[in-house]
Amino acid sequence: MLNMIKAETKRLIKSKGFWISVLIYILVFITCFYMQLSAEQSTSFVDEGISKEPGFYISVDASIKSLNQLVQTFGFGFGSLVLGIYFTSFVCSEYTSGYIKNTAVLEGGRKAVILSKIMVALVISFIILALNYLIGWILGICFIDNFMINPVQEIFIDFSMMLLLMCALFSLIIFLSTIFHNKTFGIVLLFLIASGMLQPFLDSIFNLLHISFASEYTLSYFFSTILPVSGPVVSHAFMMSIAFILVYNIGSAIVLQKTDI
């Protein structure tokens, strides 16, 4: 089992697709940051009554002033989406190539397949969040006036919470890939959750069923909400993320155990 985890982690690190995905994510992060910065500048011109040069401008409702806010606004969602697409292909490739037939027949092989994918998800999530904070710190210091670096405790809490949420999302990908052996469904659902597009639909369904409170117990709810650092919400996010990780991965292990590969 440990050897399989090492092998999968090594396959991730040596994968060109992984590093290309990381590069794409960095470019998206920087581009969105630049657009936000330009929008804030154009909005300040209007507030001050200064005429602007002809051109296209985007208005914004709130300015980004802290490191956690910057990471949550751009890095978390985009990182989950871009690297989630890669992770979906990474997991499904084992089924499409038939390599799963070689690993599943080993002693404890089926459980090891799921555990190794969980470890890969953890490694990807950690790398993305570390890059989030590094790039966010550089951009914030260089381009944002009075940029605030949050206290270490706040950064640790937000980092841990986003790490668990990303692992929960990737655990869902593992579960879907184990069932369907196809990346299309996983990528579509990944996009809907990470972009926040799924949440209004779920809100409507739960309201129709008169259980609107259930909306706050969905994975998409946390991805469509800027994560605060207040006690009750943090505890709720932590508990639900752990629950998602356990349910999806236990479900994946059960499905793989009963599947005739």
UniProtKB/TrEMBL annotation:
Coiled coil: none annotated. The chain crosses the membrane at residues 18-37, 74-93, 114-139, 159-180, 187-213, 233-256. Keywords: Membrane, Transmembrane, Transmembrane helix. It comes from the Bacteria. Pfam families: ABC2_membrane_4. This is ABC transporter permease. It comes from Amedibacillus hominis.
